[in-house]
Amino acid sequence: MTRNAALTLACVIAAAMSGCAAQPLETAASSSRCSPARPFAAGGERATLWVRQSAEFRAASEIIYRAAALALAENLADRALSAEPAQQSGHEGLPPAVVMDIDDTVLDNSAPQARMILEATCPPEFEAVWDAWVAERAAPAVPGAVEFIRAAREMKDALGRPVRVVFITNRECSKRAGDAAACPQKEDTLANLRALGLDAPTLAEDLMLKGERREWVSEKEARRLAVARGYRIVLNVGDDFGDFLPGVRRQSPAERERARCAHRDWWGTRWFMIPNPMYGSWQVVLGPDLEAALALPPAAEDCPGS
Ligand SMILES: [Mg+2]
Q: What is the 32 CA–ligand 1 centroid distance (Å)?
């Protein structure tokens, strides 16, 4: 597999969601329509099928969300606990909040992945395909997500204050032809969440998009800290390491592994990761040469003290 496949898989949806610019492709396996660039495909088929068709993915996702609900109940009782590393003091008296990513954490975007594979979508078209998908407002839920959000909104802390669920997404605000709204993607996403049957509607202030404010960039820490100014963050759910820690989108696999180990006790207690084999920063940091990456030994190593 080549630079083209790597960049395609890593950037295709991420390009629109997290500023990972789609790159021109350059392999010999080019289609005449995309020529000289290669269409979206190469290697994404198995990952996309696993998410769309396997009982294994559904079981894994439901397991994680059920465990997250159990952990949330425990975390609410511990007023000193925070799931945000930068929230180290002064949060004990704040009301509780859960932070969640949207794409492939709550909303399942395997459909546009499959579409782009089947239609051999060319890189310059990725952004438009993604925005059209957002505008459809038709993403199904990631298994277990709706049940978790409902349960979280029913829970209260020791003082009887309800949990606020805040969605921090790298869906990016951008103008759309024929639409006067500055950020049509926000209303699209709220409508998509409403369509999933969440009993309580998600409020506009509970959804934070990339670019909605100047400081709300791909790196999500500024938005987490904005939440942390008024709330104790008691749990975080995402599908990308970057949903939890700053800087990891630029780290080597070995550096990311050290960061994972440094927060080992948080995984499964404060932080919950939904598997996403389709795209993500995990692949971006491998670089463009996937053949070379495949030849490397596993990045995983035993965490110190394990
Ligand atoms: Mg995501």
A: 32
CB atoms near residue 286 (< 10 Å): 18
Task: Note residues around ion ligand 1 (Cβ under 5 angstroms).
Answer: 101, 103-105, 239
Q: How far is ligand 1, taken at its centre, from the CA of residue 178, in Å?
A: 28
Domains of the chain by residue range: 58-110+137-287
Q: What pTM does this model have?
A: 0.89
Tell me how far apart the alpha carbons of residues 87 and 167 are, in angstroms, rounded to a whole number. Answer: 18
pLDDT value at position 28?
A: 35
Task: For CA atoms 255, 19, 279, 283, give the dihedral sign.
Answer: negative
* Phi-psi map region of 178: left, alpha, beta (phi>0 left; psi -120 to 50 alpha): left
225-244: average pLDDT: 98
For residue range 57-100, list pLDDT tens digits in order. 999 999 999 999 999 999 999 999 999 999 999 999 999 999 99
Distance 237 CA to ligand 1 centre (A): 9
Structural class in CATH, domain 58-110+137-287: alpha beta
Ligand 1 midpoint to CA 227 (Å):
18
- Angle, vertex CA 83, rays to CA 82 and CA 87, nearest 5: 55
From the CA of 274, how far away is ligand 1's center (Å)? 9
pLDDT band for position 32 (cuts 50, 70, 90): low
Range 271-294 average pLDDT: 91
